[in-house]
Write a structure and sequence with these properties.
This protein is an alpha+beta fold. A seven-stranded mixed beta sheet has the order 1-2-3-7-6-5-4, with helices on both faces. The structure holds biotin.
């Protein structure tokens, strides 16, 4: 089967993961992907604020429950997919920092947060991925620990194309895992 997902795009949103959870409650197809250009309440692990200005790539995938029921395992799985996609697309060498980060040149470039949500009788996982693509500058308190693809590569990244590459690859990897 050729990979297929359903995109719901927003300009400014509170958080793509909050929106995805809302969609699950209302009944939604698995592999719906919520993407936004900007988030004003983006969050990460332990409720940490996720810096989400225009330029970055922010999306949440509504996943069907498969063989991998462990959220940590799901997140590590996704970090590997993101890292492999970046490697392939940009000829760079990202590294995975467990449990949920992708690093480039010793700075964080991507964070992943996976949560379980119970919808109409069915259990879904919402996987939120924040990728620093075209962010040119970070606030002072963040700049020592984080970076973006644009800063590291010196060029603008096509967010739409990258989203498609990541979700398609994730879907392929999932199908392989789940038979
Ligand atoms: C972390 O490193 O703690 C995880 C960060 C996850 C951020 C992403 S951005 C898209 C999605 N929406 C959110 O509010 N959070 C996740």
């Amino acid at each position: 089967m050729s990979p297929h997902f359903f995109l719901q795009s927003f300009d400014v949103i509170d958080s793509t993961s909050m929106k995805a959870r809302e969609l699950v409650m209302g009944g939604v197809a698995p592999w719906t992907v919520v993407v936004a250009s900007e988030q004003n309440q983006g969050y990460g692990r332990k409720g940490n604020f996720w810096y989400s200005p225009i330029g970055g790539l922010y999306f949440s995938i509504i996943l069907p429950r498969g063989d991998i029921n462990d959220l940590q395992a799901l997140t590590i799985f996704a970090a590997t997919t993101v890292s492999e996609t970046l490697k392939e697309q940009f000829r760079i060498k990202p590294s995975i920092k467990l449990p949920n980060d992708v690093y480039l040149n010793d700075k964080k470039i991507c964070g992943i947060l996976t949560e379980n949500v119970v919808g109409e009788r069915v259990l879904f996982s919402v996987m939120g991925i924040g990728l620093n693509t075209n962010i040119e500058q970070f606030p002072h308190e963040l700049e020592n620990g984080v970076t973006s693809l644009k800063i590291e590569l010196g060029r603008t990244i096509d967010n739409e194309a990258l989203l498609e590459h990541i979700v398609t690859r994730l879907q392929d990897d999932f199908r392989t895992m789940n038979g």
